[in-house]
Design brief:
Radius of gyration: 25 Å
Oligomer: single chain
Number of helices: 25
Distance between the termini: 42 Å
Strand content: under 5%
Bound molecules: zinc ion
CATH topology of the largest domain: Neurolysin, domain 3
Order of helices and strands: HHHHHHHHEEHHHHHHHHEEEHHHHHHHHH
Length: 592
C-alpha cells in the first residue's frame, strides 16, 4: 500500500513538530548559527562560579532541546519511507551537529568531578540547582573512581582502541558467518538470523532440527574467533574495573546506573528458587506438544496455534482502552487524546520502517509507529507502545528538560504493565477455551523469555567475569561448560540438552554490553508487581503508579520504582513474579 492511500486519521501528524520541511531547515540553520556564535570554551575553568555554571546548564539544555526536536522530525519523516534520501540527509546533518556540540561540552564532567566534595555538596543543596541535583549527585558518587589528570588522560586515549570487540562480533555475526542453506517448505533456502527465528517458531520438527544443527555449526566453525573476541571484551571490563578501583565488573556496571548490587542478587536468588516451576513448565510443554521428547529446538514452538482475535485497528484500540481501565479515567483520556491528535502511524506502507516503537519529543507529544495487522500479538503491541508513549508524555509534562528522560532500567516497565493488564482483561472477558490457553501461553512465554532466559544470561555473564577477575583465562571449553551447566540447571531434566546448546553464549550480541540483560528481567518483575497491586488495591496503587510515570529521571531508578510500591532491594517483588508464573502454569494445566 502506498502512503497516500492511507486515510489521514491513521497517519501521525508531524506538523505538531514543524509545519513543513522549510520550517525544519530554517530552524536547523538558526540553531547551527547560534551554536557557532556561542563561545562554550570560555566557560571552561570557571564552573566553580555558581552563576556561570547555571548559565552553562541552561544554555546547553536549550541547545539540546532544539537539536533533539530537529532530530525527532528527521527520523520520524525518514521512517515513513526509508527510500527517501532527503530525510536521511537531514538526519546526518543533525547527527553531525549533535556530535560537534557534545564534543565542545566534553570539558564539563571532568571539571565538575575535580571539584572538592564540599563544593558539589553545596550546589546539590542549593535550590537554584533543583533541576540538576541528581546529575550533580551522580558526579559526586563517581569521584571515588576518578584518577589523577595524567591517568585520566591515558584512559581517555585508551578508550577508542579498547572498544572494538563488539564491532568485531557484529561484523562476524552479520557479514562473515557463512550461514548455509537448509530445507524450508521443500526448498533449499539460504539461512538468515531472521528466518532462523521464524523456523524455530513455526517450522516442522524436521526443519527445526536441521536449522538448529546447521545454524549452530556455523558458530562452532568460528568458535575460536568468537571466544577471543568475547574474552577481549571481558578483559576490557576487567581493565577498567581495576584501573578505577571497583570491587568487581558487576559493581562497576551497576554503579554506573545507580542500582544497588542487592537488586542483581535478589533476582538470581528468586529465579533459582523458582526453577522447579520452570522445569514443570517445560514438562507440560513436552506433554502438550505431543512430541514424546522435547529438544532445545522445540522450545520456541507455541503450545497453542494462533487463536487470533482479528480486529480492525479502531476496535483493537477500543479493546486496549477497556483493558487498561484499571489505570483510571485520566489514563483512558490520554489514550483517547493520542488517537484523536494523531500521535500514531498505524499501517504498513511501501518503504515504511518495520516493527513498532514509541518516540518521545519534549516539546510536543510522543509519536508511535506501528505496522498494524489484525492479530492478537498486534493488539498487545498497541498496548505496549502506548505504555511507552504515556510514560514519556507524563514525564515530559511533569519534569524539567534535564530530568524528563527515564533510563533504560525503567524503560520497559510501563509497556509491560499495559500488556499484562490487557492480557488479564482479555482472559476474563472470553469464554473461548482456545483463546484462554493462547493468552496464558503468551504470558508464560513472555515470563520465560524475559525473566528466566535473561537471568540465565545474567548468571553466565557474572560467572565469566568472575573467572577473568580471578585471573583464569576464558576458553571455549570453560565457557561452553559453564553455559551448558546453566542450561541444564534452568531447563531441568524434561528436555534433551542437545550438545550444540553449549555454544548458545557465542551467538548473543547483548553479551558485548556487559550486565545489560538483567534489566529485562527486573522490568517484567516490576511490571507484574505493579499490576497485582493495582488490581488488588485500586486507586491508591494507581496514584503511586502515576507518580512513577511522571518521575522521568528525577532521581535514581530504584527510588523512582519505590514510588510505585516496588522495592527491588527486597525479595518481595521477585517472589510475586515467581508466584505469578506458578499460578499461570497451574491455570493453564487446568485447561489441558
Ligand atoms: Zn518496549
Amino acid at each position: 500500500m502506498e502512503r497516500k492511500e492511507v486515510s489521514i486519521e491513521y497517519t501521525w501528524d508531524l506538523a505538531d513538530i514543524y509545519p513543513s520541511d522549510e520550517a525544519w531547515e530554517k530552524e536547523f540553520a538558526a540553531v547551527e548559527s547560534e551554536y557557532a556564535a556561542l563561545d562554550l570554551a570560555a566557560y571552561s575553568g570557571k564552573l566553580q562560579d555558581k552563576a556561570t555554571l547555571l548559565e552553562l546548564f541552561a544554555t546547553t539544555d536549550g541547545l539540546f532541546r532544539r537539536v533533539e526536536k530537529l532530530y525527532s522530525y528527521a527520523h520520524l519523516r525518514r521512517d515513513e519511507d526509508m527510500r527517501q534520501a532527503k530525510y536521511s540527509s537531514y538526519l546526518s546533518q543533525v547527527g553531525l551537529l549533535i556530535s560537534k556540540i557534545a564534543s565542545a561540552l566534553s570539558f564539563i564532567e571532568p571539571e565538575l568531578t575535580a571539584f572538592d566534595e564540599s563544593v558539589l555538596q553545596a550546589f546539590i543543596a542549593d535550590p537554584d540547582f533543583v533541576d540538576y541535583d541528581y546529575k550533580l549527585r551522580k558526579i559526586l558518587q563517581s569521584k571515588a573512581h576518578v584518577l589523577s589528570e595524567a591517568e585520566e588522560r591515558i584512559l581517555a586515549l585508551a578508550a577508542d582502541p579498547l572498544q572494538g570487540f563488539s564491532d568485531v562480533f557484529t561484523m562476524l555475526d552479520n557479514a562473515n558467518l557463512n550461514l548455509p542453506k537448509a530445507q524450508l517448505n521443500g526448498e533449499e533456502t539460504q539461512m538468515s538470523h531472521g528466518l532462523y527465528g521464524l523456523v524455530l517458531h513455526s517450522g516442522t520438527k524436521e526443519e527445526r532440527k536441521e536449522w538448529f544443527e546447521k545454524y549452530y555449526q556455523a558458530y562452532i566453525n568460528v568458535i575460536d574467533v568468537i571466544t577471543q573476541t568475547y574474552y577481549g571484551n571481558v578483559k576490557q571490563d576487567v581493565f577498567y574495573k581495576t584501573a578505577r578501583k571497583y570491587g568487581s565488573c558487576l559493581e562497576m556496571a551497576l554503579e554506573s546506573e545507580d542500582v544497588a548490587p542487592s537488586v542483581y542478587e535478589n533476582l538470581l536468588v528468586a529465579v533459582n528458587g523458582a526453577l522447579p516451576t520452570l522445569h514443570e513448565y517445560i514438562k507440560t510443554r513436552t506433554k502438550e506438544l505431543g512430541l514424546g521428547e522435547q529438544h532445545m529446538y522445540d522450545v520456541y514452538v507455541p503450545l497453542v496455534e494462533n487463536a487470533d482475535v482479528k480486529l480492525p485497528f479502531n476496535e483493537a484500540y477500543k479493546l486496549v482502552i477497556k483493558g487498561l481501565a484499571p489505570l483510571g479515567k485520566d489514563y483512558a483520556a490520554l489514550l483517547e487524546k493520542g488517537l484523536k491528535e494523531r500521535w500514531i502511524d498505524v499501517y504498513e506502507t511501501d518503504g515504511k520502517r518495520n516493527g513498532a516503537y514509541s518516540a518521545g519529543v519534549y516539546d510536543t507529544h510522543p509519536y508511535v509507529l506501528l505496522n498494524y495487522q489484525e492479530t492478537t500479538n498486534e493488539i498487545f503491541t498497541i498496548a505496549h507502545e502506548m505504555g511507552h508513549a504515556l510514560h514519556s508524555y507524563l514525564s515530559v509534562g511533569n519534569q524539567p528538560y534535564a530530568k524528563h528522560g527515564y533510563t533504560i532500567f525503567l524503560a520497559e516497565i510501563a509497556s509491560t504493565v499495559n500488556e499484562v493488564l490487557l492480557l488479564k482483561y482479555m482472559y476474563g472477558a472470553t469464554e473461548d477455551e482456545k483463546l484462554k490457553k493462547f493468552l496464558l501461553n503468551y504470558y508464560m512465554d513472555s515470563i520465560r523469555a524475559t525473566l528466566f532466559r535473561q537471568a540465565q544470561f545474567a548468571e553466565f555473564e557474572q560467572a565469566a567475569h568472575e573467572k577473568a577477575e580471578a585471573g583464569e583465562p576464558l576458553t571455549k571449553e570453560n565457557l561452553c561448560q559453564l553455559y551448558y551447566g546453566l542450561n541444564q540447571k534452568y531447563f531441568g531434566d524434561g528436555i534433551v540438552h542437545d550438545s550444540q546448546i553449549a555454544y548458545e553464549w557465542a551467538r548473543i550480541p547483548h553479551f558485548y554490553r556487559s550486565f545489560y540483560v538483567y534489566k529485562y528481567a527486573t522490568g517484567i518483575v516490576s511490571a507484574i508487581s505493579i499490576v497485582k497491586r493495582i488490581l488488588m488495591e485500586g486507586q491508591p496503587a494507581v496514584d503511586d503508579y502515576v507518580e512513577f510515570l511522571t518521575s522521568g529521571c528525577a532521581t535514581d531508578p530504584v527510588t523512582i520504582l519505590k514510588r510505585a510500591g516496588v522495592d527491588l532491594t527486597t525479595q518481595a517483588p521477585f517472589e510475586t513474579a515467581m508466584q505469578e508464573f506458578e499460578e499461570t502454569l497451574a491455570e493453564f494445566k487446568k485447561l489441558c
